[in-house]
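PROTEIN DESIGN WORKSHEET
SECTION A - STRUCTURE
LENGTH: 275
C-ALPHA CELLS:
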C-alpha cells in the first residue's frame, strides 16, 4: 500500500504559494500517521555496518517526506504501510550498540529514509546516545528542521549529535523537477542549517549535484556561504549511483544525470546518454 498523495497535491494547488508541487510538511504529517506510534517508529532493519564516514553502524528507517526520483530507497519510502515494524528507542539503540561494538564503530545513525519523522522517538533515542560513547549522525533533507526553528533548539541539548542536511539540487527549478515537491520548499534545508548553526548544533551540508551545471554548483555554494562561510569547509558533493530501480525511475521521468558514481569513481556522462 502506498501513501496517496492526490489530496496533498490538491491542497497545494489551492495554495498559490505551493501550486507547483506537493507540500513536504503535509507529506510529513501523512507519513508520520503510518510510521510513528507513540514514541515507536518503523524500521526495516535495526543495524547494519556501512563503509561511509570511515565506518558507521546504521538502522534502516521507514518513511520519508520527499519523493526524490533518484533515491535508491524503494519500499521504505514508497510503501511504508507494508514495510518494517515498530521499535522503541531503546530497542534501536541496543541493536546499534551491539553491531557498532562488533565492528569497532564510533558513529551510529538511522538512514535510507527521513531521520526527523517522529520527533519524540528521535529525542528519546538521542537521550540513550547521550549516555554512551557513540556519535549519532542524523541524516535529514531539512524539511521539518527548516519548518520548525524549535526543532533545532531542542536538538542543541544533545552533544553527541551531528546533523547532515541533504540539499536536492542547485536551484528551486531543479529541486522541483527531481522531487516533485513545491519549489518554495527548496529553501527549507538552508533555513534548517541556519537554525542549527544558531543553536550551536554540529552540522554540515550535502548537495546532490548529478543533475547540476557548474554554474548551478557555484550558485548553491554561494547560497551556503551566505548562511555561514564555514559550511563550505565541510560540504559534501553527492552523485547518484545508477541502481536498476533508480535508472528505471529516471528513464520514466526523462531525467538524465550529468555525473554518476560507479565503483567509487565519479563518471561524467557524455552526450546525455545513460550508461
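SECTION B - SEQUENCE
RESIDUE ASSIGNMENT:
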Amino acid at each position: 500500500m502506498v501513501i496517496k498523495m492526490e489530496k496533498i497535491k490538491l491542497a497545494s494547488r489551492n495554495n498559490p504559494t505551493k501550486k507547483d508541487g506537493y507540500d513536504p510538511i503535509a507529506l510529513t504529517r501523512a507519513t508520520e500517521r503510518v510510521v510513528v506510534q507513540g514514541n515507536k517508529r518503523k524500521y526495516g532493519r535495526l543495524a547494519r555496518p556501512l563503509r561511509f564516514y570511515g565506518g558507521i553502524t546504521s538502522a534502516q528507517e521507514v518513511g520519508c517526506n520527499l519523493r526524490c526520483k533518484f533515491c535508491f530507497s524503494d519500499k521504505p519510502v514508497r510503501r511504508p504501510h507494508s514495510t518494517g515494524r515498530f521499535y522503541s528507542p531503546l530497542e534501536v539503540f541496543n541493536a546499534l550498540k551491539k553491531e557498532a561494538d562488533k565492528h569497532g564503530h564510533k558513529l551510529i545513525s538511522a538512514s535510507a529514509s527521513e531521520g526527523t519523522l517522529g520527533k519524540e522517538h528521535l529525542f528519546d533515542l538521542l537521550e540513550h546516545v547521550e549516555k554512551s560513547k557513540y556519535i549519532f549522525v542524523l541524516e535529514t533533507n531539512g524539511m521539518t528542521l527548516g519548518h520548525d526553528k524549535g526543532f533545532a533548539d531542542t536538538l542543541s541539548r544533545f552533544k553527541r549529535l551531528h546533523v547532515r542536511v541533504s540539499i536536492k539540487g542547485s536551484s528551486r527549478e531543479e529541486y522541483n523537477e527531481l522531487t516533485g515537491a513545491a519549489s518554495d520548499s527548496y529553501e527549507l534545508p538552508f533555513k534548517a542549517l541556519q537554525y542549527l548553526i544558531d543553536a550551536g548544533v554540529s552540522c554540515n551540508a550535502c548537495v546532490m549535484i548529478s543533475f547540476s551545471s557548474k554554474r548551478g554548483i557555484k550558485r548553491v555554494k554561494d547560497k551556503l556561504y551566505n548562511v555561514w562561510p564555514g559550511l563550505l569547509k565541510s560540504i559534501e558533493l553527492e552523485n547518484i549511483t545508477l541502481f536498476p530501480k533508480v535508472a528505471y525511475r529516471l528513464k520514466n521521468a526523462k531525467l538524465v544525470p550529468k555525473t554518476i558514481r560507479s565503483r567509487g569513481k565519479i563518471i561524467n556522462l557524455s552526450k546525455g546518454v545513460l550508461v
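SECTION C - NOTES
The chain has a mean pLDDT of 92.
The first helix runs from residue 6 to 13.
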